[in-house]
Amino acid sequence: MTDAAETHEFPEFVSVEHDPTSQGNSDAVRPPQSPQFERRAGNAVAFLSSLIFHVGLLLILACWAFTAGKPGQGLLLSADIDNSTETALDELQTFELAVESEQEIVTFRAEPDLTVDVDISLPTLNTGSTPDASLPSVSMESVAESLKPQGRGRGASFFGAYAEGNRFIYVLDSSRSMKGDRWIYACQQLLDSLNGLKPGQEFFVICFDMETTFLFNGSPQSFRYYQADNDTIDRVKNWLRSRILGRATMPAQALMYALEANPDAIFLLSDGELQDNSLSMLRMINSKASERRQIPIHTVHLFSDQGRLTLEQIALENQGSFTPIEGHRGFGFFRSR
């Protein structure tokens, strides 16, 4: 052998980096890939991803369109968490309302049959072949009349003016213009009104001229309501006979005391023009805008042309009725009970 070194030509190899995570033969060498090939591969992956996304979106829209035309089944697809939570709450509330409605129906069916308690005395039917001649006959007209609702409850009437309730105060004009037949007629009407009161109803009487006088000449501190029994009405009759008519027509103080007693209604009688601030006082303490309950005041204007408009205005502003008494009559004595 010669000392000269022989020259060997080796084929060229492309250096390939070794992927330690690859499986199989770690010594395998992959062929080289061009940039054009990698670009086409990336486009194919992007196309497949887009296709999968759009197909999924179409499926979701198809499901939504399918369920939208049906009655509510409690299914709602939403991409928003807050909206889905609200939908769940709405479904829960709808369910609760449905349960309540069902409970109401069950409760209504469980109630006993309603009956109308009508006080109609019907005769007992005879089961024999021949009816009992002693039995009274009941016509349809009488039954229909008994079924009609009563228009008035417990109340009182004074000169034809009617007021509902159980407590009444009569405020009478005892001025000198009421002397003679006017005073006698007013007292008779008062006694008739007291005779018409039912057990449990109460009354009080206040007279006014320039001064205010309580029933039986009592003091404001001793005020109390009375029931219209025979003894009390006799006392009222004697007290009216003993009254001495005074000057002026000033009911403001009497009306104030009457309102403080909180009756169900007040009857105010006068035959002339009021000579004090009764109208403005009532607007302050007994108007609809006041804090306390408005007490009805029914006014009676007796045998005069003076003061009519004032009494009519008082009744209008205080939920009362106005009753004018025309003409002139003569009366000698109080009628007996």
Report on the biggest sheet: 7 strands, mixed
Instruction: Give the termini distance in whole angstroms.
Output: 174 Å
pLDDT averaged over residues: 74
Shape: rod-shaped
Query: Could you list the spans in which at least 5 consecutive residues all have pLDDT below 50?
Result: 1-18, 20-29, 72-151, 330-337
Q: SSE string, helix = H, strand = E? A: HHHEEEHEEEHHEHEHE
Proportion of helical residues: 25-40%
**Annotated CATH architecture of one domain:** 3-Layer(aba) Sandwich
The top level CATH class name of one domain: Alpha Beta
* Structural class based on helices, strands and sheet pairing: alpha/beta
What does this structure look like?
The protein is α/β, with parallel strands linked by helices and 337 residues long. It has a domain at 155-325: 3-Layer(aba) Sandwich (Rossmann fold). The protein is 37% helix and 13% strand. It has helices at residues 35-68, 81-110, 140-147, 181-195, 230-241, 252-260, 278-285, 308-317, and strands at 155-158, 161-164, 167-173, 202-208, 212-214, 226-227, 265-270, 297-302, 322-325. The strands form 2 sheets. Strands 3, 4, 5, 6, 7, 8 and 9 form a 7-stranded mixed beta sheet that branches. A two-stranded antiparallel ribbon has the order 1-2. A hairpin with a 2-residue loop joins strand 1 (155-158) and strand 2 (161-164). The N and C termini lie far apart (174 Å). Residues 1-18, 20-29, 72-151 and 330-337 have low confidence and may be disordered.
